[in-house]
Each structure stands twice: as structure tokens, then as C-alpha cells.
Specification:
Elements lengths: L1 E6 L3 E5 L7 H9 L2 H10 L1 H4 L9 H23 L9 H4 L1 E2 L10 E6 L7 E9 L2 E11 L9 H19 L1 H7 L1
Parallel strand pairs: 2-6
Antiparallel strand pairs: 1-2, 3-4, 4-5, 5-6
Helix pairs in contact: 2-4
């Protein structure tokens, strides 16, 4: 596992050993791939139409996801470069994954897609609550209320755990964590 600096001293992305690309690149490639999205929404059609998002066709879900992902990626990079007037920094964009994570070093965080309601999630590790440095470690299309009952979301929880342990032990982030 290693990290890739996306925006200098602000935004990093994990590349897992079994993956060819870092997570930020991989996620946005998937969210822009109509074939992947079509297959995903077909597989999770019951979740897609369970009521929270209303009645959505697979075709509309693919179109919505691709449009939102494009805008989300641009927004994230603009914020990381301090070029976005709506957000002061990444700390105002990412939120703690759970209430018990709040304010802890190496906090697990999430960012939401830009449109409400949204099913897009980016997952990151905040190096320190006093430092505006985040390491993207995953992302998912979340169609259910919790992450605990779908295999692809459980995978994201595990990836966050692995990434958190890696970032905590990395010399690259040690001084920032103090």
C-alpha cells in the first residue's frame, strides 16, 4: 500500500496493493463508467427503489451518478486547492463517519455527493483534527441507511480500517499527526 499526493500538502489518495490505481482515480473512473454503473444499479435495484430515493430507473440512476460524480470530483479538487468560495477547506467538506470518531486523530470521514438526496460517498482519513490533510481511502454508492448490511459497503469499512492503520504508521504523516 502507498499514498499518492493529489493536491500538495492537502489531499492524498491510497493505492491498495491489489489495485492498479489510487482510490480517488479508481472511484471516479467507476462512477463515470456507464457499463459498471448499469450493472451496479441492476444488481442493487431493490435498494435503489426502496423508497428513500423515490422511484428511479436504472438509466436515470446511471445518468445522475455520472453527472454528480463529475461535479463532485471538480468540487473536491477545487476545495483542496482553496479555489472554492463555498468551503473554507477540506475540513468543512468531509464529516466524521460516526459520532464517536469526531475530534480524534486519524478520524474516519465521509463526504457526500453534491445533490440531495445523494448516494455518492467518498471516504477518507483525516490525519489530525488541527491539520487540513485528508487521505482518500475509498468511495461507494450507498443506497441503504447503514453500511452494515451490504457487501460493497462492508468492504469500504474494512478499507478505511486498513488505510487508517497504514496512515497512522506512515512516516509521511507522522509529524502532521502530532
Amino acid at each position: 500500500m502507498d499514498t499518492f499526493e493529489v493536491i500538495s500538502a492537502s489531499l492524498f489518495s491510497v493505492r491498495y496493493n491489489h489495485e492498479e490505481y489510487d482510490e480517488l482515480y479508481r472511484i471516479f473512473e467507476l462512477w463515470n463508467d456507464p457499463t459498471y454503473l448499469y450493472d451496479f444499479f441492476e444488481e442493487h435495484f431493490e435498494d435503489l427503489n426502496s423508497g428513500f430515493f423515490g422511484k428511479v430507473t436504472v438509466k436515470d440512476a446511471v445518468r445522475k451518478t455520472r453527472k454528480e460524480a463529475k461535479n463532485l470530483e471538480k468540487k473536491l479538487l477545487d476545495i483542496a486547492k482553496n479555489e472554492d468560495a463555498d468551503f473554507v477547506n477540506l475540513s468543512s467538506f468531509f464529516k466524521p463517519l460516526t459520532a464517536h470518531e469526531t475530534g480524534k486523530p486519524f478520524e474516519k470521514d465521509k463526504a457526500y455527493g453534491l445533490y440531495q438526496p445523494t448516494w455518492l460517498r467518498l471516504y477518507a482519513i483525516r490525519v489530525n483534527v488541527n491539520v487540513n490533510v485528508f487521505v482518500v481511502c475509498g468511495g461507494a454508492i450507498k443506497l441503504t441507511p447503514t453500511m452494515n448490511n451490504r457487501a460493497h459497503l462492508l468492504t469500504e469499512l474494512e478499507k478505511m480500517k486498513v488505510a487508517k492503520d497504514f496512515v497512522k504508521s506512515s512516516d509521511q504523516f507522522y509529524e502532521l499527526s502530532l
